[in-house]
Design goal:
Blueprint: H1 2-13, E1 26-30, E2 33-37, E3 44-46, H2 48-53, H3 57-65, E4 67-75, E5 82-88, E6 91-96, E7 102-104, H4 106-116, H5 128-134
Antiparallel strand pairs: 1-2, 2-3, 3-7, 4-5, 5-6, 6-7
């Protein structure tokens, strides 16, 4: 059991390959979260713990409840399980069916930025994940 945990920890530390173009993604840190970004396509990967760290409880629980019936064209860069189209709050993502991390394509990040530019100050606190994505 100890060996399995050590192996998982080592796997989590490995650079992830971008699910879109296969490039090694760089690890970045912001607002207490660690995430991966592809320098080629501009996509971002957040593990489930990081999604929880930068979102409200309502937003992160929506990831489970708002899954669309269609599958995503991507496999999870962390565990290679299939992804499905899902939502975290107001942000459309590709969510892993196994480890529940999320992949955001550059257009999804751009859409979050456009949406965030229209919010009033009072709306922004209830949309923590979208605000985080809009600042990527």
């Amino acid at each position: 059991m100890t060996q399995l945990r050590a192996d998982r920890k080592r796997d989590a530390d490995l650079p992830l390959a971008c699910p879109r173009d296969g490039r090694a993604m760089e690890t970045l840190h912001r607002d207490g979260a660690t995430f991966a970004r592809c320098g080629g396509c501009g996509g971002h990967w957040l593990d489930q713990e990081e999604v929880r760290r930068v979102s409200t409880e309502d937003e992160s629980s929506a990831l489970v409840s708002r899954v669309e019936a269609r599958s995503s064209p991507f496999a999870c860069p962390r565990c290679q399980a299939p992804c499905v189209t899902a939502w975290v709050g107001d942000v459309r993502v590709d969510g892993c069916t196994a480890c529940h991390g999320v992949w955001l394509d550059a257009p999804e990040v751009a859409e979050a930025k456009r949406a965030a530019s229209t919010w009033t100050t009072s709306e922004r606190p209830g949309r923590r994940f979208a605000a985080f994505v809009a600042d990527l």
